Amino acid sequence: MLALGIDPGTAICGYGLVDMQGSHLKAVEYGAILTSPKMQPQDRLLKIHTELTDIIKKYKPDVMGVEQLFFNRNVTTAIPVGQARGIVLLTAAQNNIELVERTPLQIKQSVVGVVGYGRASKEQIIYMVTKILHLPEPPKPDDVADALAVAICTTHCMNSLTWRNRL
């Protein structure tokens, strides 16, 4: 099963493709879709949509995972992230890809495990993603590590009996 994890953002939209063969996870491709703050907002969203569509067409993932929007105090950040997340959802629908949405807590617990109790630091997530996927070095920027964490969580979710029965 090939899972595409997305960490939505308008400046940096991280993505990571993780293949699950049995219980073994392997990073297939990962990176970030970058947009310039000089671009018009609609052009930034179009770039995310176009590049994400290209990634989907190239790799044909079985499922796409995205983090549920967590509202914090910074509304000026939440609105563009919500817009980018909407583009991700639209792109999944246009390409008929099963979508898995998980909270930040669920993603952290999936990657760090019981030890972290879901309160893992950014550094712990990056460390565990690097170890789980046997990467030669930590993914950069952090948005890419977050996207890989979403993909890992998505493979765990899709491997569960509940999701398999649902499909």
Could you explain how this protein is built, in words?
By secondary structure, the protein is an alpha/beta fold. The chain has helices spanning 41-59, 75-94, 104-112, 122-132, 142-158, 161-166; strands at residues 2-7, 12-21, 24-34, 63-67, 98-102. A hairpin with a 2-residue loop joins strand 2 (12-21) and strand 3 (24-34). It is globular. The model has no long low-confidence stretch (mean pLDDT 89).
Order of helices and strands: EEEHEHEHHHH
Number of strands: 5
Strand line-up in the sheet with most strands: 3-2-1-4-5
Radius of gyration: 15 Å
- Average pLDDT works out at 89
> What is the 3D form?
globular
Describe the largest sheet.
5 strands, mixed
Strand content: 15-25%
Would you summarize the structure shown here?
This protein has 167 residues and is of the alpha/beta class.
Task: Pick out its properties.
alpha/beta; 49% helix; five-stranded mixed β-sheet; 167 residues; 6 helices
Topology:
Elements: E1 2-7, E2 12-21, E3 24-34, H1 41-59, E4 63-67, H2 75-94, E5 98-102, H3 104-112, H4 122-132, H5 142-158, H6 161-166
Parallel strand pairs: 1-4, 4-5
Antiparallel strand pairs: 1-2, 2-3
